[in-house]
Each structure stands twice: as C-alpha cells, then as structure tokens.
Amino acid sequence: xxxxxxxxxxxxxxxxxxxxxxxxxxxxxxxxxxxxxxxxxxxxxxxxxxxxxxxxxxxxxxxxxxxxxxxxxxxxxxxxxxxxxxxxxxxxxxxxxxxxxxxxxxxxxxxxxxxxxxxxxxx
Amino acid sequence: xxxxxxxxxxxxxxxxxxxxxxxxxxxxxxxxxxxxxxxxxxxxxxxxxxxxxxxxxxxxxxxxxxxxxxxxxxxxxxxxxxxxxxxxxxxxxxxxxxxxxxxxxxxxxxxxxxxxxxxxxxxxxxxxxxxxxxxxxxxxxxxxxxxxxxxxxxxxxxxxxxxxxxxxxxxxxxxxxxxxxxxxxxxxxxxxxxxxxxxxxxxxxxxxxxxxxxxxxxxxxxxxxxxxxxxxxxxxxxxxxxxxxxxxxxxxxxxxxxxxxxxxxxxxx
Lengths: 123, 269
What we know:
The structure holds 2 protein chains of 2 kinds.
Chain A: E1 2-11, H1 21-40, E2 44-49, E3 57-62, E4 65-70, E5 78-88, H2 91-105, E6 109-113
Antiparallel strand pairs in A: 1-5, 1-6, 2-5, 3-4
Chain B: H1 11-33, H2 36-57, H3 63-81, H4 83-92, H5 111-118, H6 125-135, H7 141-147, H8 152-168, H9 181-201, H10 206-224, H11 229-245, H12 263-267
C-alpha cells in the first residue's frame, strides 16, 4: 500500500458561480458518502480543511535569528484549501478517490504520493 | 479630565475624547469578550450614545470609564443575541461589570496587549500599521485609507482580512514573554516609526495628524513600558525629528526651525 495526499486547491480571487443552497447540500452529502466509503475500504487516513491562505504565517531562519513573517509561503494565485491523506494500493486507486472527490466539490484535486509518513514517535 | 457643565459639549469635543479614549476602551472590550469586531462595534455604539446624552447631561468625570462601561453593556446585549455569543459570555461572566454601574472605577489598561496583537510579526507590515491606527489610534477606516493613499474599500478589506487572520490563526492577546520580547518590541517600534514616516511623506492634511499619532503611540508605549530603553529611544527619535519637521520643506536658517515645544521631551533622560 502507498499513501497519497489528495489536495484541494482554490484560486485566489477567482469568481466561481456560487453554489445554490441545494447544490451545496448535495455536494456535502456526496462528500459524506465518499468519506464513509474511504473509511470502510481502509483508505481513509486523515483529512483537513484549511483557513484562507492569507491566514498563514511563515517561520524561517536568517543567520542566527528565527523570523516570523506573514504568509502564505508561495507567491502564488493557487492555494491549498484542504486535503485528504489516503492509503491506496497504487496511483490508479488514488486517482479513483480523487475523481470522486472532484466530482462532488467541482474543484481540482492534486494527487501526490507521500515519501514518508510518521505516527507519533515512541517515547 | 473633568468638564464642567457650562462648557459647551459639542461633537468636536466628543470627537477629541473619542481619539483619546477609544483605544483604551477597545482594548478593554477585547480583553472582556475576546472578539475585535464585537469590541469595536460596542465602543462605537457607546460613543453614539455619548453624542446624544452628553450635550444635555454633561461629560461624566471619567469619560473613558463611562465609555468602557457603556460599551461593555452593549457587548453583553449583542452577545446574548446569538448562540456563539452566549458561549463566549459564559466564559467571561466572571469578569462582567467589575466597575460601578456608571463607570468611574479604574479601567485596567489593556492597550499594551492590544499593541502587541496589532503588531504581531505574523501580520504584514501594512496590516500592522493599519490595524494599530484603527484600534489604538481610533482612526476611521476612511482616515487610515487616506493616510496611506489607498481606496477606502481596499483598506476596509485589508482590515477585515487582518482581523480574520487574528481570529483564525489565534494570534494571542498578550504581552510577549521575556525571551520573545526584544523581537516583538522591535515590530511594535517599527510600526510607530512607519506611522511617523507616513506622516512625514504625506503632503496632505493627514500628514501632521499621523506624526502626532505616532508620537502619541510612542508616549503611550513609554508609559506602559517605563523600563524599556528602546521605547524611550523611539519616543526621543520621533520627538526630535518632529521638532525639525517644519524645516524639511522650508528654506529657513536651521536653528530657527527647531520647535522648542517638542525638543525637551526628546532630550530628557
């Protein structure tokens, strides 16, 4: 098994057709089904939704000093909005989940393999 | 600050009191309810009430205390109206109404905490300056926008985003610990200096006002942190530059351009 991050990206300032209340509820319901399916098949590891990119803060080292600056880190128009960490047999399986998620929320999903994954280290 | 009843209580006087007192009241209200927007609105409402009441009843002996107490009542009313607010109120109930019914008691000075929140390094420099002027200086969004030559809507959005980040990222409302203090204080002093500089380079009507605001902030900080030489240094610096500001754009003999009114503060130990 391998682990993948399915990340949801939003484009800053992009005006999308706002979802109607009904569409929003349908989207939520679809996501609920997909997430339960992920859990049932043992694919689900972790998921999170993030605040807007401009709530990010960057910590970096300059010389001996640790500096804090306002984020986001990347000077980009596209920002991570949330992610799923899933376990899948291979990329095709991961892409299958991504296809389901993007169909439900109508936002592009990036699928990226995890090089390592650590649970809490033993004391 | 006691205003005798025979003195004319008009909008400009209340405006001056607003500029003097609103920072302290907003800081006290944030300490009370933990929400910048609720605090700002409550203080605005309290001043609106003052505008109606004071011309007839006279200015109370401690206008700042009156404003804070009145704002606290408005905040409680507002928080009672929504569910999330009721949770918040539960947490702050123990702190409610420490003063007498109509103010006058000593209001704890929470401005120092507020300065450090507004000047947190996780906020952009523009955001820090704008929020400091808005919350501690009591400037309106329009005034802050004019000072930095941006559209009012742009400034309003900047302030909204800044407050949203403070809330979402949970930027703390506290004076930093000793080990973080030097870096964090530098950020506060930088904001004061940026405000001063913005005043020097703003040829418009907002210029002198911003310089005065920077000096006022430096004085407040110096009162609140009497043991910090860097703070006294900043106050002295802006006072000395201020005393020479008039001569920057005038061809007069330099010695005649010192404004003696501001020099003593700049050179006092």
